[in-house]
Amino acid sequence: xxxSSSNQKLLNIEELSVFLGIKKxxxxxxxxxxxxxxxxxxRLVKFDKHKINAWLEKHTHKEKSI
Length: 66
Hints:
Strand order of the largest sheet: 1-3-2
Number of strands: 3
Radius of gyration: 14 Å
Distance between the termini: 47 Å
Order of helices and strands: HEHHEEH
């Protein structure tokens, strides 16, 4: 049986950088510009994977049918 907390894992900068295939500096820029949702845990920056997936869906451009 899986622990429900493992399903709600928070990603750190490094993990999200790999997940999205972008540089960590780009993520820091997006955080500074408030372009992406993040969670502050003390001095650490974390990301909820479910919210990141929703953010990706929102920013996905879909082809319009004619």
